[in-house]
Amino acid sequence: MLGLYASRWKLPKRLFKGPSYVGLDGKSLSWEVDEDKVNLRMQTYLMFPRKTVLDLFAGKGYLSWLYAKHGCEKLICVEKSEKYFKVLKENLSEFEGKCEIEFYNMDNLEFLEKNLSRDEPITHVDFDAYGSPAKQVKKFFENYQPKSFLLCFLTDGLIYNFRRLSNLNLREYYLQDFMVKHGKCRSIQHLGEYCQKIQENFMNIVAMTHNLQSYPIYFKINSRKTASYSCYLFLPKIVGNVDFKRYVGLKTVEPFPEKGKMVVEDG
Ligand SMILES: C[S@@+](CC[C@H](N)C(=O)[O-])C[C@H]1O[C@@H](n2cnc3c(N)ncnc32)[C@H](O)[C@@H]1O
């Protein structure tokens, strides 16, 4: 729990009842949430109005509990593990009648495909993953087009993944063929220092693919150097004279054309 009780965003001890979280290596974690993860998220959360939060890695609900406690109007929690889901529901039961909460005990990719309503006015989406949530970020924007501002909170183990193990093909999601020659990464072991830029570029490409613009709000590597905490503000693209791609004279390029076909729209 690492110093959480010293922070401004106190979580009651009763929320921390078992089972404890298990990391990607299958071992129980000695920490479950840390101060930076909470502080950075909550500071940003409070800056923006109209709060409908989608928590895609809800777990036992520490972050969801804080969102509900601090002004959330509607909360959608998705958690695939049955044992954490049970605790999640108990932990959030005190908000019954105060905040509308929907619970989904399922894989978040399936939720995004089948259950996410395109009309839901989501203002905040939280990806508090173990490993990397890049797959979920992509899937979310394939299934949801924000009409107004949207804040994306990420817990991303990409540092951990680059250095030690990988729960997903990082080249496919983050490098997107950058630094790749003859099917091999040239310097994957040196990429740690570039993680911030790599993630930012990934978010930019996702944004541009869906006619959005994305802006980094914060980026911090956690004290254990296992993950980064970051937030991006997404806005619909402003079309016209201030269109962010066209005003610098660039042409709009179809992001993922079929092999051999480069589709260029005249600007
Ligand atoms: C870092 S923990 C989340 C902690 C939680 N945000 C909190 O504040 O208590 C990650 C959670 O995501 C869940 N999870 C992992 N992959 C998932 C998936 N594909 N779909 C839904 N939940 C998933 C895990 O079971 C775990 O509970």
Describe this structure in words.
The protein is globular and about 50 Å long. The longest helix has 15 residues, at 195-209. A 7-stranded mixed sheet has the order 3-2-1-4-5-9-8, with helices on both faces. The chain is built from 8 helices and 11 strands. Helices cover 27% and strands 20% of the residues. β6 (180-181) and β7 (184-185) form a beta hairpin. It has 2 domains: 32-236, Vaccinia Virus protein VP39 (Rossmann fold), CATH 3.40.50.150; 242-267, no CATH class. It has 267 residues and is an alpha/beta fold. It binds S-adenosylmethionine. The site of S-adenosylmethionine has 20 residues, from α2 and α4.
List the main descriptive attributes of the protein structure presented here.
disordered C terminus; alpha/beta; 11 strands; two-stranded antiparallel ribbon; 267 residues; Rossmann fold
